[in-house]
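User: Can you model how nicotinamide-adenine-dinucleotide sits in this protein?
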Amino acid sequence: MIEKLKIKKFSNNVNTPKSIITGGAGFIGSNLVDHLINIGHKVVVLDNFVSGKKSNLAQHKKKDLKIVKIDISKGKNLAKYFKGADYIFHLAALAQIIPSIKNPKKYYKNNVIGTLNVVEGAKKVKIKKLIYAASASCYGTPKSFPTSEKDKIDLRHPYAVTKFIGEEIVMRYASMFNMPNISLRFFNVYGPRLDILSQYSAVMGNFISQKKNKKPLTVVGDGKQTRDFIHVDDLVSALVKVIQSKSVNKIYNLGSGKRTSINTIAKLFGGKKKFIPFRPGEPKNSQANILKIKKEINWKPKISIEEGIKKLLKR
Ligand SMILES: NC(=O)c1ccc[n+]([C@@H]2O[C@H](COP(=O)([O-])OP(=O)(O)OC[C@H]3O[C@@H](n4cnc5c(N)ncnc54)[C@H](O)[C@@H]3O)[C@@H](O)[C@H]2O)c1
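Assistant: Here's the modeled complex, given as structure tokens:
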């Protein structure tokens, strides 16, 4: 199923929408692939499988999904993969904080040069919309809650820097070359296929694996810190609404709009807790102001944290 640096043409109906997803074998990307195929898109995934998995996409038929194994930070001419596409979702990135501190150059090359290659390629073809997966890490340790798109940018680690430079590139290309680009600042996304095996997994991933292995849930600090958790199904529904909307050249927060403490998450998982030292540099609280996306895109999240965790634990 994997094709190296080569795309076969879909047997094409001109009216079938075609979407490209960079990073489509990853957690969020593969959930997006499922949904787009479900609503009738033909999908091409560009992924180098550095963290993505072939098994995340194994359920799809060749007629609906093409997979190209490629490193977008090395692929010089991505335009050839984008030809005939209506939408590009650029999700490919190295996405962990601690490794980015250990290896900033690798993160810079992968996330910044990768994004530059994607917009350069997209510039050469006519697409309806390009969506960039930006990150709420650009707000660092915010001062006001819920945090809006107009709040201060406060970059605390190389991962946040590379994702923010990526957003700047995408938005500059939108204004310089009149490209239909949108940047969405994802908050804490959770749901099926979340990475639970990495030593750098975030809280939800850790809790799932600890619960599975009947270990105590490790709570950082006093557990009173909060995060804005958005279920991947809600996030994917926002991505689809964004491509259907007329909005271009805009930045939106994408979260649940609610903040939930880690102690509350632990309680919903159930079981024993083990407190571990606070990690300096991490924000105390995080909560997205989602008024802009609600109003302009006519989207709202539907899955409560209680329901989302129940779904996760049922798997
Ligand atoms: N998960 C979250 O809570 C969250 C929050 C904010 C932003 N984001 C952003 O959303 C996107 C997806 O995140 P995710 O959680 O699904 O991570 P993930 O690691 O599961 O997915 C990233 C995918 O990109 C691929 N990839 C990485 N570098 C590549 C390259 N150079 N060429 C081709 N493919 C490459 C990986 O193999 C993987 O399939 C990322 O851009 C991330 O920065 C995620």
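A couple of observations from the model: The first strand starts at residue 2 and ends at 4. The mean pLDDT is 94.
User: Helpful, thanks.
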